[in-house]
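The protein record quoted in full:

***
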Amino acid sequence: MTPDAEFGYELLVCRYAELAWHPSEGSRPALVSRQLGTKDRRWDTVVIEVDPAAFERRREFGDRTIDSDLLHVVRGAPAEWAFYRDALPHPGYPWRYVRQAVHRAAGRDLIEKRRDGNRIQIRRKRPYPDWVERIVAVENKPDLDRSAADRLADQLDHDIETALADEAWLATTGERVEPALLREMPVEAGILATDFSGGLDGHLAE
């Protein structure tokens, strides 16, 4: 399959996930992204299953990204005024970076901040919701041959072992793949067998 065709398949899988996730357990609210991951591992498709009520509360924190430094402060900010170093878990890096994040969080109205002498105190404005329920990482391989199956089995094994995502899946064209190749995949991996030959609407109607 050509790179353009693989790219097209990836977009179809993403669109399918947006419209019809979960494949076998009924509708689940989800956010879908492509080519997302870490410095060392990037997935074709990432499905983030969300708690709708908690996700709605997340909107109270604005539409801008809350990076990891800010999230450390926003999640840990106490209900009552406290010195930020007493209130927050140790970050594993120098506290001066936390202090900078405290100022940024207050500047964006994510928390409240005040001075008590030479100490900076913080207080939360609202609890930060736990809106992510599950993260599913999907590898897309429309034409699964022997060499691709061997490589993907190793990748999925790695994903399951590291548990960066809650689940690891393989999406492939179910009408052409050999069952023996699927049996090479880790038993913990999910399989999404697709048939987009009739277009996305045809697959959704199945």
Notes: The chain has two domains: 3-51+131-204, 62-124. Strands lie at 30-37, 42-50, 82-83, 111-116, 119-124, 132-140, 167-173, 190-194.
